[in-house]
Amino acid sequence: MSRNILKALVRLPGDPEKGARPGRVEFLDNAVQNATGTVNLRATVSNPDHHFWPGQFVNVKLVLTTQKAAVLVPSQATQISQQGPFVFVIKTDDTAELRPITLGQRQGVDVVITSGVAPGERVVLAGHLLVRPGSKVHVDSGAPAQSVGSKGGNRPSGPERGRS
Questions:
Q1: Does residue 81 sit in the same domain as residue 112?
Q2: 3-state SS, residue 75
Q3: Which of 149, 103, 147, 104 is nearest to 124 (CA)?
Q4: Cα angle: 45, vertex 48, 54; to 5 degrees
Q5: CATH code, 144
Q6: Is residue 163 included in any domain, yes or no?
Q7: Whether pTM exceeds 0.70
Q8: Residue of 4, 3, 8 lying closest to 39 (CA atoms)
Q9: Angle ∠(57,59,60) on CA atoms, nearest 5
Q10: Do 84 and 58 fall within a single domain?
Q11: pLDDT in tens, 77-99
């Protein structure tokens, strides 16, 4: 906060996520409320059109840092084993490869993969119990192919269903 890089994205509960207005963080409490899991924060937001009113409830997202070209996968693609987190990557010959990964921060329904998966690789989203490393994977033809997206790029849109 002393470096003045914290940003707050403020929106009304009914507003879309993309409609959040940026603000400058003025105060950030160092305690989390046990009952609600919330943190007190004060931010200054430009409000020339009187979109926000005093006493109104708002949703605030605190942006600590922005990671450029982050690799995102849907959270449902990640699995945990005794050796740690992994995903099944679908290779070009439609076979599954078990790939150990390093998980980063969650971003909504997605999670950042800091190592183990490259942008553009396809991952299995459903049917994990039926997938074995090296086995053929059937891609559900009812949904578009799923590939790993970058933070600023296209987010995957359809499921890859694993079946051996």
A1: yes
A2: helix
A3: 147
A4: 60
A5: 2.40.420.20
A6: no
A7: no
A8: 8
A9: 125
A10: no
A11: 999 999 999 999 999 999 999 99
